[in-house]
Structures are given as structure tokens and as C-alpha cells.
Specification:
Blueprint: H1 2-18, H2 37-53, H3 57-70, H4 75-87, H5 91-104, H6 109-121, H7 125-135, H8 144-157, H9 161-174, H10 179-192, H11 195-206, H12 213-226, H13 229-242, H14 244-247
Helix pairs in contact: 2-3, 2-4, 3-4, 4-5, 4-6, 5-6, 6-7, 7-8, 8-9, 9-10, 10-11, 11-12, 12-13
């Protein structure tokens, strides 16, 4: 009986040995299949982002270099390299990486946003309009309301008041909580003499954000127009107490 039993155990093994094509086997252990280049790049970029978030510029450089070696055409890697060099105060190198990212992927939202912000921060407002105008055309961009607000601020800097107003309106239409857009529209309408619209946008701002030196000054001006002595007095006191250096710069309308 023992010999028969062993033959029953050995038979399937022999069948699988000589008839491999008809066998289904299970393997355990061994090495997993190699990761794809896309997964390898993603892992390196995730690591780099962690270092960038910690402002550890030196350690971020390693995974970014590795990611670029795996995929030299990764626009995202070029953008993060640009961020790295921007924070290391190497604007020429940073811009080179931004330009290369957009050369590789013309409509990359991350590259357009970061490059536009980079140019704005260097007072290159006309140049910043190019990527920012392209960015807001992306209807799927998840921060489109903020992109329109940034575009509006840039249009203001170059004196395109109507374009700025239109951009701020789009920003609020997409997200009414864009408080800066409300304040800018209040200021623009005040400058145009449309005090009713200015007051509406000003109240919209106050519902979303705390007072600043600029908003207090605008509130004083609107109080002056409305003949609201209480508002003038309270906002004037707040401006002097909270922002004494700005108080002297608040120019009130003439009588």
C-alpha cells in the first residue's frame, strides 16, 4: 500500500514535467515584475516633493536627477527642478527649466501657473500675461478661479483695467470665496465712481476676509461717500492702531 500511495503522488509531478504546456502551476516567492518607467518617475517625484516641502533643496536634487535620467521628457520633473532653482535664487536656471517644461508640454497647467507666478514675482508683468492667459483657457484646471484672480492682478499691473475687471469677475463666478477679487473689484468700481457696486463688492470682501490696511482705507473712503461718520471714525481708529505706517498713506476724497 505504501508503494501505491507514492506512485499516486509522483504521477502528477511527472505529468507536469513532461507536459508543461498543459499544466497550471502556482509560484510563490521570487522577485516581482519590474516597475514601469512611469511608476519609477512618479516615485522619485513624490520623494522630491517631500524634500521640497521641507525646504531641503539639496536632498530634493537627487530624486529629481534620477527622474530626469529615467524620462528626460518629463515636463513635471522640469517644473520641479525650476522650483528648486527658484528657491535657490537661481532665476536664470529656473527659467530655463520652466521653458523646457512648456516646450515638452505646451499646455501643462502646473508649468503655466508656476512660470506665470515666477515672472510676476520678478515684475515681468507683460511676460507673465502669456502663460497666465493660456492657463485660464484650461477648463479642467482645478484652481481656475485662482488662475483668473492672478491674471486679473497681472492685467492691473500693466494698466489693462477692463481686462482686469473681467478676470476678477470670472474668478468670482467660479468661486465666490476669492476675497482678493472682491476687494479689487470694489477698488476698481470706486475709482470709476460707481459707489453702489463698490460697496457691494466691499461687503462681499468683508464677509470672507479680515480687514487689512488697504481694505480699511477703502472702507473709510466709502464711508466718506455715504456720509457714515461712525464708519469713518471706527475704521480710521483701526487703521491708526493696527497699521500706523499705512494710515498716512490713505488718501481720502476731497470735500
Amino acid at each position: 500500500m505504501m508503494q501505491l500511495t507514492m506512485r499516486h503522488f509522483l504521477l502528477p509531478v511527472l505529468l507536469c514535467t513532461f507536459g508543461v504546456a498543459g499544466c497550471i502551476t502556482e509560484t510563490t516567492g521570487g522577485l516581482p515584475p519590474p516597475a514601469s518607467d512611469e511608476d519609477r518617475v512618479k516615485a522619485q517625484l513624490d520623494l522630491a516633493r517631500g524634500y521640497l516641502a521641507q525646504r531641503d533643496w539639496w536632498r530634493a536634487r537627487g530624486p529629481l536627477t534620477t527622474a530626469l535620467e529615467i524620462d528626460p521628457r518629463s515636463a513635471e520633473t522640469h517644473v520641479l527642478f525650476a522650483v528648486l532653482y527658484e528657491n535657490e535664487d537661481e532665476p536664470i536656471v529656473a527659467e530655463r527649466y520652466y521653458r523646457q517644461a512648456l516646450k515638452l508640454k505646451r499646455h501643462d497647467s502646473q508649468a503655466l501657473n508656476n512660470y506665470g507666478t515666477f515672472l510676476y514675482g520678478r515684475a515681468r508683468y507683460d511676460d507673465a500675461l502669456v502663460p497666465l492667459r493660456r492657463l485660464v483657457q484650461d477648463t479642467e484646471y482645478h484652481l481656475r478661479a485662482q488662475a483668473f484672480e492672478n491674471l486679473g492682478l497681472t492685467e492691473l499691473r500693466v494698466g489693462n483695467l477692463d481686462a482686469a475687471k473681467a478676470a476678477f469677475l470670472r474668478s468670482l463666478n467660479l468661486n465666490f470665496e476669492q476675497s482678493r477679487s472682491s476687494l479689487e473689484l470694489a477698488d476698481l468700481h470706486y475709482a470709476e465712481g460707481d459707489y453702489t457696486a463698490a460697496e457691494d463688492y466691499y461687503q462681499g470682501y468683508l464677509n470672507l476676509a479680515p480687514q487689512t490696511a488697504r481694505s480699511l482705507c477703502l472702507g473709510i473712503k466709502l464711508g466718506k461717500v455715504a456720509g457714515d461718520d461712525n464708519q469713518i471714525a471706527s475704521y480710521g481708529m483701526a487703521l491708526r492702531n493696527l497699521y500706523p505706517q499705512a494710515a498716512g498713506q490713505c488718501t481720502l476724497p476731497r470735500e
